[in-house]
Amino acid sequence: MSNNTLKPKGLPQCPQDAAYLLGKRANISDLARKLGMSPNVLGNKLNPDQEFHKLSLGEAVAITELANDDAIIESWAASRGYVLVKVPDEVSCDEELSDQLMKLSEEMGAALGEIRHAREDGVIDSIEYEQIKKKLMSTVTEALALKAVVKGQVRDLPRHTATVISKEA
Questions:
Q1: CA distances in angstroms from 10 to 86, 92, 100, 136, listed in the order given
Q2: Are 5 and 129 in contact (CB under 8 A)?
Q3: How far apart are CA 146 and CA 78, in angstroms?
Q4: Is 19 exposed, middle or buried (0-12, 13-18, 19+ CB in 10 A)?
Q5: Cα–Cα distance between 77 and 132 in angstroms, integer?
Q6: 78-104: per-residue pLDDT in tens?
Q7: Is 18 helix (H, G, I), strand (E, B) or coil?
Q8: Each residue's pLDDT tens digit, 136-147
Q9: How far apart are CA 128 and CA 146, in angstroms?
Q10: Mean pLDDT to the nearest integer, 33-51
């Protein structure tokens, strides 16, 4: 199996390239002002071909937060063979456990159905792969939501000291 099938398409594989594209999407003057630097300096730091000004990790984190854009960390994760998935908010209602199990099962079934459908002609093309990827990511999201529901169900048990009863008594 080729490792290329595991790489997300449409996502820059280099975090510097992702930062550059983020700069193209965001208001660079506003970001620069909030970071306390000139727009020219920030533009140079976001340019992967720039030799002298380099974006620091702290600046990349700050830009991600200020722009509310996860492209840099998504690209970094992808370049390391990972996928970035937003963790759902915690929930704690008892009924949500069974609902979440059903949602997870539904999403898994949809993902497997998408894979089966794509393989009917013996070839998975790039459009089918994108559909499969969306379904699988939705399944992962539901699995993480289930984890949050289960975590909300955890209760501390009261601790009792053990009483040892002697056989001689």
A1: 19, 37, 31, 17
A2: yes
A3: 24
A4: buried
A5: 20
A6: 888 887 777 666 655 667 777 888 888
A7: helix
A8: 988 988 888 888
A9: 27
A10: 93
Least confident of 21-30, 56-65, 68-77, 138-147: 138-147
Separation between Cα atoms, residue 124 and residue 115, nearest integer Å: 8
- The tokens 């970035």 sit on which residue? 84
Looking at the predicted structure, is the pLDDT value of residue 165 above 80?
no
Question: What single string gives the DSSP state of each residue in 111-138?
Answer: HHHHHHHHHTTS---HHHHHHHHHHHHH
CB atoms near residue 37 (< 10 Å): 16
Instruction: Report in angstroms the alpha-carbon separations of 156 from 111, 146, 151, 162.
Output: 36, 20, 12, 17
